[in-house]
Amino acid sequence: MDSNNLFHRIRSLDKLTKSEAKIVSYLEEHYPLAAFETIASISEKSGVGKATVGRFITKLGYNGFPEFLEAIRRDVVTRLETPIEQYSLKKNALATEDTDFFHQHISTAVENFNETYARLDKEDFNKVAEIFARSPGKLYITGAATSQALANYFYLLVCYLRSDAVFIDCNVSTLAHRLADVKAEDTLFAITHYRFSAITEKIVHWFKEQGCTVILLADREVNPVSDIVDYQMIARSDSPLMFNSRCTSFLLLEALISAMTPLLDPQVFSRFESFDEFFRKLSVFSTAIHTEKRDSFTRLKGKPNL
Questions:
Q1: Maximum distance among all alpha carbons in the chain?
Q2: What class, spelled out in words, does domain 118-264 have in CATH?
Q3: pTM, full prediction
């Protein structure tokens, strides 16, 4: 991850003044459009003086406002590249005979994890888990392309916890059938990553029009629906070469499942026993759980292997 990234520099600061916090809030809310601002417009829109904006930019390590804008613009260009463009730009620098690809990916993934955790609002995370566990209506889960695989994984695990989860697979021909019965008490969990599915965007707008709570997992603060969702969680997806990583999104989904599970005890155990009975009758797994082990699990209410 680029150590010169604007938000990396901001996080490296020990403490922000109230005025600096206003500037940061504005930059986060309007990034990357801030690349086209002037020092006067940032000052006016953030509600602080131009001199304060200038001092803060210097504090971040930029040699003046022009360098600040140029750095943002370079970052925007980098983020708007397609996978094949990323590969073309990075392959000569990274792909040599002695390249340790595994180490590169692990190192980048760790940086993604750390940055995601540092920026994640813990209260919002717990609130999202509570909504997923206790929302009165159905819990709809959707995503497209690689996000669909993540959404399907999360849906399968949620099915162990509650009975009214619905997976929307973004198949346009059947989308109306999935959305026709949406009620205001329902919740939508949408997963999207750059370059942001247009179908997912339409689904989010539909749920908001019905008065539903909408929660988004994305890899960019600025995305087509960031301004209308109720909660947004950002999972960094930087990659050393071609395809952006989904490791952090995957980890965040599993953390949500972990946070939801205690909120739904004891129904988790009864549902797991029901699933296990189906698995046994249908011989789903080659390693069957024998009766005495299931009885022991019921008595001890141990941790189920999902």
A1: 73
A2: alpha beta
A3: 0.68
